[in-house]
Amino acid sequence: MSDLASHESVARKPRDVPTDSRSKAWGLTAILVALYTVNYGDKVVLGLAAQPLREEFGFTASQIGLAGSIFFLALTMSGLLTGVVSRWGALKWILAALAIAWALCMLPMIIAASLAVLIVSRFLLGLFEGPSSALIHTATYSWHPVEKRALPGAFITSAASISKILVAPALGWVIVHHGWRAAFVAMSLTSVVWCAIWLGSWSPGPYGAEHDASVADHDGASTASAIRWITLIKTPTFLGAALAVFSFYTLTSVILTWLPSYFEKGLGYSRLEANTMFGIPSMVALVAMFGTSFLGDRLMARGVSSRIHRGLVPGFGLLACGIAMVSLPYIGSPAMVVVLVSLGYGLGTIVFPLFNAAISEICPRDKLAGTLGIFLAFMTSGGLIGPYVAGRIVDAATNPADGYALAFQLIGVLALIGASAAIVLVNPRRDAQKIDTLVRAATQ
Fold it and tell me: The whole model's pTM is what?
């Protein structure tokens, strides 16, 4: 038996795996991708509405950036509680409740817009979105075995790109023709529609903790793992991957909040052009994510070490991203800036599905939601500093173009640090074997 199979049999393999249609697995994955798309649409809408809000209410770049950072503060705080939230009930009802909460959080700005309302509503939205990423990944992984999780993870992560490629231009058109309030209404209604589809479709998958719990309830045997979360967090794979995704999510948060403004005010494109071009980096990201994830799953199924495709590949992708961002202040052509941002962001995005799959590889099933919650909370903490610091840099710059370029350059340096940590530390197979040994020792 291979090392990976041994770890799966001890830590995560259910005692009775029913035969389920792969079409059902991918159909439910598609519904979860839709939820993550709504999730990112709620984030994107602030970046698209940034300039209209500044024009209507006189908000400064720092104030818009503060609202963005407050959102990520709440996102990080509640993400740390994912393990607790996951025990409140079945995933079906938890995700439905979160989606309805997102819809409600859109309403205050529609009814009584002000800076205080913007900050409070974004804070509440962050609180309710915090646990969702880990729970969405946990639900998705419950329908896919550990060696085939990079590709479904890429579909989940692609929601960010879908939001920028399809949702952002649509919302941009709505804002230009109907005002920013209409965009907030559209996102609220979308959450409600998704919830109705979800409640009529979801059932737990055979590779998840909910399936294990149902088996344990039936025969009275416990499936709980003796491994503590702190043990998983201290593994080199977790630490290296966490530093990498922290640095890249800092960039992601700045792109969500400021990229349309950069294209419009910094590079001289029209508002509609800027909102439309918002999706270009995500087109590159989709190609990079699906290409590396599909290849990675095939390599892992053939026994190639996950050190290569869930460690070195995303590490070097992030390294290329950092180099691209550091180069921006030296580029004089607006078109070349768009190309560099697109290539850098696209290559960096592969850290999300590949490192999430790496974390799932080292985790026992019952610890997956909580460990992913902590991992993703650390990741989103990059959003605490990104939007606000970028806004301060832009306000202090002699012109918007220099301010935005400097902000992206500084984040590029951070990405280089995160990439170096990932290349050196991330080795899921090695750490899975260590956890496997601890599981065996605890069960003997």
Answer: 0.74
Residue type, 41: G
- 335-337-340-344 Cα dihedral, nearest 10 degrees: -130
- d(Cα 406, Cα 205) in Å, to the nearest integer? 46
pLDDT 10s digits, 28-65: 999 999 999 998 888 888 878 888 888 888 888 778 87
Rounded-to-integer distance, Cα 343 and Cα 331, Å: 14
Phi then psi dihedrals of residue 279, to 5 deg? -85, -10
Domain boundaries, the chain: 19-443
Local structure of residue 207 (DSSP, 8 states): T
Summarize the confidence of residues 56-75 as an average pLDDT.
82
End-to-end CA distance of the chain: 20
Q: How far apart are CA 337 and CA 329, in angstroms?
A: 9
- Nearby residues of 389 by Cβ (< 8 Å), 6 or more positions away: 65, 407, 410
How many residues are recorded in the chain?
444
Q: Please check whether the domain covering 19-443 is classified as CATH 3.30.499.10.
A: no
Q: Rounded mean pLDDT of the chain?
A: 83
